[in-house]
Amino acid sequence: MRNRGFASDNNSGIHPEILKAIGEANFGHSIGYGDDKWTKEAITLFKNEFGEDTEVYFVLTGTGANILGIQSAIHSFQAVICAETAHIHTDECGAPEKFTGSKLIPVATSNGKLTAAQVSKYLHGFDFEHHSQPGLISITQVSEMGTVYTVDEVRELADIAHKHGMFLHMDGARIANAAVSLGLPFRTFTKDAGVDILSFGGTKNGMMVGESVLFFNPKLAQFTKYYRKQAAQLYSKMRFVGAQFVPYLKLGIWKETASHANSMAKILETEVRKIKGVQITQKVDANGIFAIVPKELIPQMQEAYFFYPWDVERGEVRWMTSFDTTEEDILNFVQVIRRLLGE
Predict the structure, then answer these.
(1) Residues with Cβ < 8 Å from 122, sequence gap 6 or more?
(2) H or E, element range at 168
(3) Which CATH class is domain 15-250?
(4) Number of Cβ atoms within 10 Å of the Cβ of 4
(5) What residues have CB less than 8 Å from 261, skipping those under 6 apart?
């Protein structure tokens, strides 16, 4: 059996309070497909956080959330502009393009974050039927490179999107980690910054299964319930998703778990910066550390604490911390690195 590793926060378990909530929802019968008290309460909690005009749809997976958000907002002849590292582009097996019919336009970035200047280069061909029409900008918060968008950076992208009649979607698979990093309420760097659609994740931060899609422009959700059914994301026993979000939001579990994961990443960053043979390549804003290590030593490091290579040619790797990562995990891993490097 492997030690806890640094491959992904998806690899961690379930927070005890979340597991307890699932168990409590398991007694007796309840109406399916979201017409239950837990799902209704979770929706109320989201509305309390983001505003009464917010439309909330629960789904099973992050990919499902991204598809549903994008498909609800644009037509198949419209395009999605995203970072080349975006999850919708690199890790969803073409699902967004399959289900939405929309072309993804990846943009090269140095840190996983798009800028208005980068996006502006792709804002052409409007009203010309031979070109995919730019329809939506999708950003990831926290980005796939572990970096966090500031409020001003989000607002700048929202402004350029809205100026051209487009929408701004945020993939918030690690939105809790971003909120902790920024020290701000969710609404401040999403709805109030101009985001139109938010994929709000929880699975990477202590939940078992289930994500939510939030529409801050209710008009965009006109046909969402049908798209959700067609995408096989309408869970019959929806209460087990809603039941997780209730304590997650009500008890502030999201903040507890994300704060711990982020703090563990800072400890790992601090320790590996002391090692001469390791080079940190990205700013550590949340719970992801990107570093270059000697390529030939990666398999031995993985054997002790599993993680994924990011750029094999460069010897760049990704280390993710989770809500259940311990300081002992980190210190032991650092000792492994030191030993392999001969320090």
Answers:
(1) 81, 105, 107, 134
(2) strand 167-172
(3) alpha beta
(4) 19
(5) 9, 177, 205, 286, 287, 321, 322, 323, 325
Our measurement of the distance from residue 20's CA atom to the centroid of its chain's CA atoms, rounded to an integer in Å, reads: 24
Tens digits of residue pLDDT in 19-69: 999 999 999 999 999 999 999 999 999 999 999 999 999 999 999 999 999
Residue 111 burial (CB count, 10 A): 18
- Specify the amino acid at residue 304: A
Average of per-residue pLDDT across 182-205: 98
Q: 253-341 falls under which CATH superfamily?
A: Aspartate Aminotransferase, domain 1 (3.90.1150.10)
Per-residue three-class SS string for 75-126: CCCEEEEEECCCHHHHCCCCHHHHHHCCEEEEECCCCCCCCHHHHHCCCCCC
Helix (H) or strand (E) holding 57: strand 55-59
DSSP state of 61: -
Name the pTM for this structure. Answer: 0.97
User: What are the structural domain ranges in the chain?
Assistant: 15-250, 253-341
